[in-house]
Amino acid sequence: MTRKQARRKKQKKTQRFAFPRIRLSHIVAPVVAVAAVVATYFASASMLDRPIRSIEINGPFQRVTALQIEEAIAGELEDGFVSADLGRIQQRIVALEWIDEATVARRWPSRLRITVTEQVPAAIWGERGLLNVRGELFVNAARHIPAELPRLDGPAEQAPEVARRYLAVRDRLIPVGLDLRRVNLDERGSWDMTLHNGVEVRLGRRDIDARTDLFLDVVADIITGRAADIEYVDMRYSNGFTIGWNNGSRTPVDDPEGDAEEMLALRGEG
Q: For the structural domain made of 54-118, what CATH number should be given?
C-alpha cells in the first residue's frame, strides 16, 4: 500500500496550454477595411490624375528664359497632375546653369506653378568662372563677364575660402574709402591682393590672419591718404611691413605700434 502511494507522489502533474480562440471575422474585417481605403485612394487618385494642362513660371528671367525651363522639364510633364514627381522637376530646374533656387507646386485642377530665383554673380573666378554670393562656383565658362566684378583666383577646391577672405577684407576696407579689385591664392598657398586703386598687397603664406589684421588696422589708413604714391605693400614680415613707392624707393616699418612719428610721416601728416 505504501509503495503505491509513493508511486503516486512521484508522478508529475502535466498542464495543458490552449491558444486563445480568435474569430475569423475579427481578422477579416480590418483587412477588408484597409483594402477598401486603399482601393478608394487609388480610385480617387486615378480620377484626379488628369493631364497637366498648363505651367505658370515666375522669375526675373535675366539669364534664363521660361522656354529653357519648360524644355528642361518636358520629360516630366508626361506624368499626370497627381503622379508628377515635383522633387524631380525641381532638380531638373536647379540643374540649369543660372538657376539658384526653384519651387514647384500643384494648382488645381491641372496646373503647375514654378517660381525660380537666379544666381547673383559676386565675383569672377579664374578666367571665365563666376562665384555667387555664397562663394560657390556656379558657372565655369561664362560667355559674358561683368567687368565691374572683382577677380578671385586659386585652386578650385579653395574657391569658398578665397571668397570668404575677399568678403571679410572688403567689408573692413569700404568704411575707409578703399575696395578690393583682386584676391589671389597661388598653388604654394601664398596670398596677394590688389586694391581698386592699383596698390598691391602681399600677404605671403604664413600668419595670414595676423598680417591681414595689421594691414587693415594700420596700413589701409596710410594708403587712403597716399594711394597715388604707393606701388605695393609687403606684409611678409614678422613685426612690420614695407611700403614700395612709385619712385622706386622702399620704406620698412619694423614697429608700427611704437613709432608714432614715423606713422604720421607715412600718412603725410608729419
A: 3.10.20.310
Q: Which helix (H) or strand (E) holds 160?
A: helix 159-173
Rounded to two decimals, the pTM is 0.72
Summarize pLDDT for 22-67 with one digit per residue, the tens.
565 555 555 555 654 544 454 455 556 688 999 999 999 999 999 9
Domains of the chain, by residue range, sit at 54-118, 121-266
Q: Could you tell me the three cell numbers for 6?
A: 509513493
Architecture of domain 121-266: 3-Layer(aba) Sandwich (3.40)
Range 8-30 burial, b when 16+ CB lie within 10 A, else e:
eeeeeeeeeeeeeeeeeeeeeee
Report how far residue 17's alpha carbon sits from residue 38's, in angstroms, rounded to the nearest whole number.
39
Backbone torsion region of residue 166, taken as left when φ is above 0, otherwise alpha when ψ lies between -120 and 50, otherwise beta = alpha
